[in-house]
Give the backbone structure.
Amino acid sequence: MQTIYVRDEETRFAGLCDECLMTEASLYAPKCDPNVAGTLRRYVDIGFRTCARGHRILVKRVRVMEPA
């Protein structure tokens, strides 16, 4: 499963669906826009997004540790 990582202070994310980029267009599966974007609330650590073709993408918040 593809993962998009979001930094601690960010609420918006954007990326490209890897599956859509690797899939070739055919009669029954035309080429789709691989762009995926959305929001993740500041206190939510994990979310899911689905691209236009239906591939599931995990959105995970990364907590940045401050130096001691």
About this structure: The first strand starts at residue 2 and ends at 7. Helices lie at 18-22.
